[in-house]
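hey m, so remember when u said the tokens were messed up on ur end? i reran from scratch. heres the input so u can diff it against urs
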Amino acid sequence: MALSNGLRLVRTSFSHEKSISWFPGHMMAGLREMRDQMRTVDLVVETRDARIPLSSINKQFEQIIKGKRRVVVYNKADLAPSAIQAAVRQEMDKRGQHVLFTDTSINQSVRQILTVARDMAKSDPIRYPQLVIMVIGMPNVGKSSLINALRRTGLNRGKAANTGAKPGVTRSLSSKIRVLESPPVYLVDTPGVMIPFIPDPIAAIKVALTGGIKDNIADENVLADYLLFRLNRFA
């Protein structure tokens, strides 16, 4: 359906029935590694994309995290409207999830995570002689960039995790990366893990448009058409 907007016709809805499936072998292996190492982890930082706050949730992580303490980090907040933050916080509060918004280019923004880790470690030094954080999330939500920013902020040191503008740069769990001296805090980077099948085709398009799915997997014509639809709606 389209409505006249001056001299233009603007669609009021977008219909697409075919979803996208992309779940290469290294992701399954990564899930197994995450599950195996979770017993050594004290805190989970689940990283999501602030531009697509609901579409970047991977429900597979729930079974892996189980009883671990978790902080949900909506990364790339500088690329999303700040007006959505209150609504996202409210929705995640209903789900019992502690939410932070981060911009990895700003130390103060990233320091929020270090504060949570520091407070947790100091609350029980005997239990946490060193605090281990596992950083998880879907592909291209900025996990490795976040780890490098935490290391820069906490230790004033250079990058330790490889980054890239395409999904699948990190393909296995990393060794422990130190990000804080006192108390000692370490991070473990993990491969981005996609949902094996995204039932909502529009959600799949959003993930693809934000770089979570390789370009040759998605239909670029459909992606461009949806992007044009959104730009026209909010222009």
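this time it looks ok to me. The longest strand covers residues 43-49. if urs says something different then somethings off w ur setup not the seq
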